[in-house]
Fold this protein.
Amino acid sequence: MSIQTPTSPPGTSPERGDFIRDIVAADLREGRVQTIVTRFPPEPNGYLHIGHLKAISISFGIARDFGGRCHLRFDDTNPTKEEQEYIDHIQEDIHWLGFDWGEHLYFASDYFDQLYEWAAYLIGAGKAYVDDLSADEIREHRGTLTEPGRNSPWRDRPIEESLDLFGRMRKGEFPDGARVLRARIDMASPNINLRDPVLYRILHADHPRTGDAWSIYPMYDFAHGQSDAIEGITHSLCSLEFEIHRPLYDWLIDNLPVPSKPRQIEFARLNITYTVLSKRVLLRLVNEGHVRGWNDPRMPTIAGMRRRGFPAEGLRDFVTGVGVAKADNVIEFGQLEHAVRNVLNRTAPRRFSVLEPLKVIIENYPEGQIEEMDVANNPEDPSAGTRKVPFTRELWIEREDFMEEPPAKFFRLAPGREVRLRSAYFVTCREVVKDAAGEIVELRCTYDPATRGGDSADGRRPKATLHWISASHAMLAEIRLYDHLFVRPDPGADGDLFADLSPDSERVLQGCLVDPTLAELPVGETVQFERLGYFTPDRDSTPGQPVFNRTLTLKDTWAKLQAQGRQNT
RNA sequence: UGGCGAGUAGCCUAACGGUAAGGCACCUGCCUCUGGAGCAGGGGAUUGAAGGUUCGAAUCCUUCCUCGCCAGCCA
């Protein structure tokens, strides 16, 4: 098994203790288990999201830290919702995230024969029976949270009859819903999961792996624990909503001749502000066209975050930094951003690009002259070296970087003011050119030839440094800016989740001018546009029409000041 | 309402009977050719509440409160 060791936020370590690791360590120490075996068991009914990454990180991470192994097992017991497409994408995503199950790829459907035998065994032992009640009738008999259930009239039917019926269910003799196999436990149990839970249902459906070989399929409860036992899983780690199923999990393990006794431990699932981690909702967002697909950069899916430009390392750091516990939690989105920026700041090459261009003419700069300025590829990493960036008489700067009447604390370009063009020259604004409508269309500036490279010998130090791009070299691009999909930190808390969808979670900018070397940047790489944020080429790019996604902005003190100012007035 | 689980600063997590720690966020200062990054510092917690046990309780006990999960032939 080869798993990259995640780097981690300062003050934490990837193998930081948590209550599950404590249990695992004790089981090892006290000889209850020899080798730790965990599993990640997705149902192939959708794409993986950041919540799954927490589960992946826990199960793969514990296996790694304790020298064991982690299996990937598809929980494919409901053919009506599962597709091969999902089976493929899930594997791709896990690999991209940096985890590997080696040879240990399994499917619950691999165990259908064994599971069927065990079901028959249970019937033979008088611990399961075929029930002819309809779904509605079963529900009525189940009772409620406060009232006990009633026995099905079929509960005491002869074993031989159940065995015969179960065999015929398998042969496909009955239509969907005609009968089910139920465990015979206790209709009065305070735990509703123990009130004779359904073990098998009839489903004449095509299964992505077993085709039409089966017309009955095991329920989650009958498949999961036994699959764990077959694979020798020692610690079956899942989220809190399965806690209530554990007594059933244990009951089945105790009443079946399974080859091992796995132990289920539950942890709280991940929640993040401004986002929804529910496959049902994500599927709806896709199907109703609210997003560009499962891999839309706004989606909390692994595929979406990847397309957004979030590096796998940052995602891993995020989930390990969030910890493992049993208390319900909602992580602030900012913590994800922090983990991503932390990686990107270290690794992303820098480039100059202008989102909303404003023309600048350097009046005293020779027409036709081109100078190659040396610019650091990454100030955080000298080994990344430098690159040549052409400087000419006509440039573009960011429209936001100029104000005709600058307020206090606005340090950037203004009439008569001198600023530095990063790694190039100091320039001073001499004149503002407007069109008939009074719109600023151009700035006439002068440069100081003595400041080549961006330093002045006389110790002059402009308060601002701007990014820029040569007009004759810039490449035109579309840039897509992303923000939270939902407007509130707790989407749907008021009832209507879809009413909380943000109207401007995506803003598409045309006419952006980017560093021409970006034409060769492969999809999957993320760069920093200096002073603007992190950007990554989108798969929608074509040779003549490059498209970039904004991964994240840089932390922006000026923007924050502005926002506060707006609040105060 | 029956059962199960959980409550530690704005958000996460730790402390395993010995006197509340770390990350994120926030605030200051320094530094800076990214208003980025970095560095240094700071504020903020009667540990859900009330009782009890103990020399000593976030940790143990009791009661209460709040929140979450369970009444699919979903997982």
The longest strand of chain A covers residues 426-434. The CA atoms of residues 47 and 126 of chain A lie 40 Å apart. The mean pLDDT of chain A is 95. Chain A has 13 helices and 25 strands.
